[in-house]
Amino acid sequence: MPEYGETWTYESIVGAVPGIDVPPRAAIAIQIAVFEGAVLLLAWYYGLWSAAVAGTVAVAVAALGSAEMLRIGAAVRRTDPPAAYRRLLFGTSIEVVLSVLAFVALVTYLVRLSPGSSLATVFGPEAPLPVVYLTLLVLWDLCYRIGTGWWASLVGLWRSARYRFSPAAAGQFRRIDAETILFGFAQLLLVPFVTEYPLLVAALVGHVLAVTVVSGSSILLLWRREHVTASA
């Protein structure tokens, strides 16, 4: 098992409960069961079945994000990366800072910038407190995945620009960058549920495009360096 400081914050939390050793797949299954169970229970109790579809998709996207984080983290550790890259990716917790910024921006939009906030539009002017609580919790989960995607993408480009790798290692890092792009594209599943809010659509699509450009640049840089070395 990786040491603390060499994992995503998400992985550290899963492994921090004393006396409990949960395999990654089981942790994701528990995540889905708890969040989806809460979505369905509140939808039934408050008669909000129209909102349950959006909640279910959000839970699925968050779970897919968890799976991608675990895949990317495991792939990075298997490749035996440069120590500085590993520390930047896992040890700084900057993905949490980026996630907080994204979440605060989202809440600011929902509360202040959107006339008749989207929460009120979906749940009514007097949304039940448990529903608001769960909604914000799921939104934080999604923002954490977005922040992690940003950081993985940026650090990946820095890694590819800073270091030279063997063909085998370069190929593995290209696959990691491709996973990071896939990580971003999964969040486009949320777009159909925010089409009435152009700023949220622009933010989601812009996030995916930015990750694609940055991680795509990393892939291209690795590929060019590998071919330059091979032809030298």
UniProtKB/TrEMBL annotation:
Listed transmembrane segments: 43-67, 88-111, 131-155, 176-194, 200-223
Source superkingdom: Archaea
InterPro entries: DUF7530
Keyword entries, A-Z: Membrane, Transmembrane, Transmembrane helix
One Pfam family linked to the record: DUF7530
Official protein name in the record: Uncharacterized protein
